[in-house]
ATP synthase F(0) complex subunit 8
Amino acid sequence: MPQLDTSTWFTTILATITTLFILFQLKISKYIYPSSPELKSMKSLKHNTPWETKWTKIYSPLSLPLQ
């Protein structure tokens, strides 16, 4: 069984890591990064919600009445 012959493992692993390193470098170098990101407005927009506020309140377990 050739898998049990450990004499070629180092060469195989080294070749695999080198190939992956080169491929990732080529893939990353082709990516175009935005040169100047646009500033976004920090104003918070008011959303019109169709539900009532009383049904959307989040209750903390410690603030609930004891039963």
Q: What stands out?
A: The mean pLDDT is 77. The first helix runs from residue 9 to 29.
